[in-house]
Design goal:
Helix content: 10-25%
Number of domains: 4
Distance between the termini: 76 Å
Order of helices and strands: HEEEEEHHEEEEEEEEEEEEEE
CATH architecture of the largest domain: Beta Barrel
CATH class of the largest domain: Mainly Beta
Radius of gyration: 43 Å
Shape: elongated
Largest sheet: 6 strands, antiparallel, barrel
Number of helices: 3
Structural class: alpha+beta
CATH superfamily of the largest domain: RNA polymerase II/Efflux pump adaptor protein, barrel-sandwich hybrid domain
CATH topology of the largest domain: OB fold (Dihydrolipoamide Acetyltransferase, E2P)
Strand content: 35-45%
Number of strands: 19
């Protein structure tokens, strides 16, 4: 035998020996002669928990009631009865205007009415005695009515010289001083009611059918980082804003301590729905295909692909609305190495904690 043929024969024998050794090793490790070993996967069982659907928005706080007090009649400010920035109650006297001329006018018309009343009584007696015509009595009655109306008008002007709080709240910074002469409609001071407060915010028109009075809201403010103030929606604008394609909602917030102020910027979270006993799984268990969502579950030691309908996603978890039983063994890691029908072995088996 020539030397080249002898070398070629040695190479063939060496390759055959290596192949036989490798096959023996696979057989010794337990690998079935007809298939691959089970693929290790991580498994979790679904959990039941409360799921809240919410929408986030930005808004602003506004006073429950707010008004700028103005004088209805011109006059000189005689006295001011409040401290700026203080609380006042409905009906409290805030300003008094000089009313000396109006008081004199009231006194004059009171005397005129008294005289007209006496003249009418005298005419009534004369008519009763057939000493005066009925027309004379009617004229006296008309004159008395006119004088009484003028007296009432004078008394109204006198009452308007005292400016009172139309509702309870906090007065702002006054714009006038004692002794100043003001015209009608001049701005005097603002009055706002800050407990409760209102919060106005908008949601997209796609949520218009899901918002209604009574929904709970959580409000966060930059002035109080980490704090949450709660309230409820009490009104929904019946119109959609054609410019922003959004719907305005208005909620109320308690403000008994007076910490919140009208005009503050607010981050609002409105609760749209709450499901107390929803099935949830880790989000990494989802296996999307063709616009649909699937999960792998273990059935008789093999991977099975099941279509599911999902709902709310939150903090790495997803709600399963249908397609999955509560006792399923859901594969949450290792999906890339398997397919439907692949033999699998769980590395763990735990309840998927929320």
């Amino acid at each position: 035998m020539s030397r080249p043929n002898h070398v070629r024969l040695l190479h063939v024998l060496l390759i055959s020996q290596i192949a036989l050794g490798t096959a023996g090793t696979v057989w010794a490790q337990g690998g079935p002669p007809g298939g691959m070993p089970p693929t290790p996967v991580e498994v979790a069982k679904p959990t039941r928990e409360a799921v809240v659907e919410a929408a986030s928005a930005v808004g602003s706080l506004r006073a429950n009631e707010a008004v700028v007090l103005r004088a209805e009649l011109p006059g000189r400010i005689e006295s001011i009865h409040f401290e700026e920035g203080s609380r006042v109650n409905k009906g409290d006297l805030l300003f008094t205007l000089d009313a000396s001329l109006t008081k004199a006018e009231v006194a004059e018309w009171e005397a005129t009415v008294a005289q007209s009343q006496r003249e009418m009584d005298r005419a009534n007696d004369l008519v009763a005695k057939k000493l005066a015509a009925q027309n004379d009595l009617d004229a006296k009655r008309s004159l008395l009515a006119i004088d009484q109306a003028r007296l009432g008008s004078a008394r109204t002007r006198l009452a308007k010289s005292q400016i009172r709080a139309p509702f309870s709240g906090m007065v702002g910074l006054r714009q006038v001083s004692v002794g100043e002469y003001i015209q009608s409609a001049d701005e005097l001071v603002s009055l706002v009611q800050v407990d409760p407060l209102k919060v106005d915010f908008r949601v997209p028109e796609s949520l218009a059918a899901r918002v209604a009075a009574g929904l709970e809201v959580e409000v966060g403010l930059d002035a109080y980082p980490g704090e949450v103030f709660t309230g409820k929606v009490y009104a929904v604008d019946p119109q959609v804003d054609v410019q922003t394609r959004s719907v305005m909602l208005r909620a109320t917030l308690a403000n008994r301590e007076g910490r919140l102020r009208p005009g503050q910027f607010a981050n609002v979270r409105v609760e749209l729905a709450r499901r107390a006993d929803s099935l949830t799984i880790p989000e990494q268990a989802l296996w999307p295909q063709g616009g649909k969502q699937y999960v792998y579950v273990i059935e008789a030691g093999k991977a099975a692909l099941q279509e599911v309908r999902i709902g709310k996603r939150s903090a790495g978890r997803v709600e399963v609305l249908s397609g999955l039983s509560a006792d399923a063994d859901v594969i949450i890691a290792g999906q890339l190495k398997i397919g439907p029908g692949s033999p699998v072995v769980p590395l763990n088996l735990r309840v998927a904690k929320p």
